[in-house]
Amino acid sequence: VPDLQSSPRCNPYSFAARKDLFSAIPNFLIIPGDNEWNECIDYNPNSNTDRHRDDWRSTFAEGASPFYQFSMNFPRANNCSPIISRKVGNPEIFYFEYNNVAFFGLNRVMDESYVSDNAPVDLNEEWVEDVLGSASCDLESIVIFSHTLLKDALYNKLDAYFNNCGSTIPTLTITGNEHPTTYCMTKSNERIDVVVEAYRAGPILVSIVRDPDGMHGDSDFVHIEDPDPADTNSQCPF
Question: Is the pLDDT of residue 48 over 70?
Answer without folding.
Answer: yes
